[in-house]
């Protein structure tokens, strides 16, 4: 499917849909791992599957997003998305010195996890008039020092864009 769109085929990407190979992501119950004997390593017996799960994707991706922000002590970091990657981005932002983390999402359970496990303030974008205005208000008019997009490539929105995505 990539040839007509991109002009060349790219490699498969775990966790993406059929245009990129259709390989399940690391959070799937079962995944196909080509060359698994070459590019994987065994998990020590002392680590549970649940503990190891986040190290496969969410933790390194969230940490990478936070690291790219070059966070200084006391910075305010805004994280869009509170799935596994967003939660890890929020948590690692704190570990890197952020004084405040604000997580933006629409799923109440995910926002609760961000508050409880990452100590984040949260914004439900479905009930906020304007996320940028809310961020400015929460930061005394300054806005965040850094922003992390942890929504994902194939996130589903609401309204007309959601209908368009469904039709595709």
UniProtKB/TrEMBL annotation:
InterPro entries: ADH-like_C, GroES-like_sf, NAD(P)-bd_dom_sf. Its cofactor is Zn(2+). Residues 84-155 form the Alcohol dehydrogenase-like C-terminal domain. Keywords: Metal-binding, Zinc. Pfam families: ADH_zinc_N (PF00107). The keyword Zinc applies. GO terms for molecular function: metal ion binding. The keyword Protease does not apply. This is Zinc-binding dehydrogenase. It comes from Nocardia ignorata.
């Amino acid at each position: 499917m990539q040839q007509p769109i991109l002009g060349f085929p790219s490699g498969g990407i775990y966790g993406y849909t059929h245009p990129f190979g259709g390989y399940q992501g690391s959070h799937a119950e079962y995944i196909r791992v080509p060359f698994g004997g070459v590019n994987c390593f065994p998990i020590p017996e002392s680590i549970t599957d649940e503990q190891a799960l986040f190290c496969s994707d969410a933790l390194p991706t969230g940490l990478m997003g936070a690291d790219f922000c070059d966070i200084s002590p006391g910075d305010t970091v805004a994280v869009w998305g509170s799935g596994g990657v967003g939660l890890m981005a929020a948590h690692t932002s704190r570990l890197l010195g952020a004084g405040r983390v604000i997580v933006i999402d629409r799923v109440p359970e995910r926002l609760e996890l961000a508050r409880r496990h990452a100590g984040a303030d949260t914004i439900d974008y479905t009930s906020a008039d304007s996320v940028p205005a809310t961020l400015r208000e929460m930061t005394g008019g300054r806005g965040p020092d850094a922003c992390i997009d942890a929504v994902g490539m194939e996130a589903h929105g609401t309204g007309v864009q959601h209908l368009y995505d469904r039709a595709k």
